[in-house]
Design goal:
The chain has 141 residues and is mostly beta strands. It has a single domain, classed as Chitinase A, domain 3, CATH 3.10.50.40. The strands form two sheets. Strands 1, 2, 3, 4, 5 and 8 form a six-stranded antiparallel sheet that branches. A hairpin with a 5-residue loop joins strand 6 and strand 7. The longest helix has 7 residues. The relative contact order is 0.27.
Length: 141
């Protein structure tokens, strides 16, 4: 019964399993450069818990893109794994298990309030705004 026109699951949002895998779903495939380790990428994002409660977003930081070198230290591994391979202009929803997020540690604000509880699966909606290749020789012309 191969019926490609029949939608299978009713819930199309990604879910993180209990292992070390990031689950991702492209909302829109971009047409620009592909993000690879070592590239400088800029993203807009919304971070949520599995119940839909938002804990962070680009909007909370003046709607400025988060810019970083893909594969560098300083961001949770699952966020970087999920962006790897995206194309500039693309949008992707990620489900990141605790093992690739903050694990068994609470994340607290400056006042000591817990903003991300330990062992939380995190959902990120990401838009890849820009990719600057690690070795961008053609742009020097």
């Amino acid at each position: 019964m191969n019926s490609p026109a029949t939608p299978a699951p009713q819930d199309t949002s990604p879910t993180a399993d209990q292992t070390n895998q990031v689950q991702g779903q492209d909302v829109k495939v971009g047409g620009g450069l592909e993000a690879r380790p070592g590239d400088t990428v800029s993203v807009l994002y919304v971070g949520k818990f599995t119940d839909g409660t938002e804990f962070d977003s680009s909007a909370a930081h003046g709607n400025q893109p988060l810019t970083f070198v893909l594969g560098s230290q300083g961001l949770i591994p699952g966020f970087q794994i999920g962006i790897n391979g995206m194309k500039e202009g693309g949008q992707r929803t990620l489900a990141i298990p605790p093992s690739l997020a903050y694990g068994g540690e609470d994340v607290k604000d400056e006042s000591g309030n817990v903003i991300i509880p330990a062992n939380s699966t995190l959902i990120f909606e990401i838009q890849l705004v820009k990719v600057v290749p690690a070795t961008s020789t053609p742009a020097a012309e």
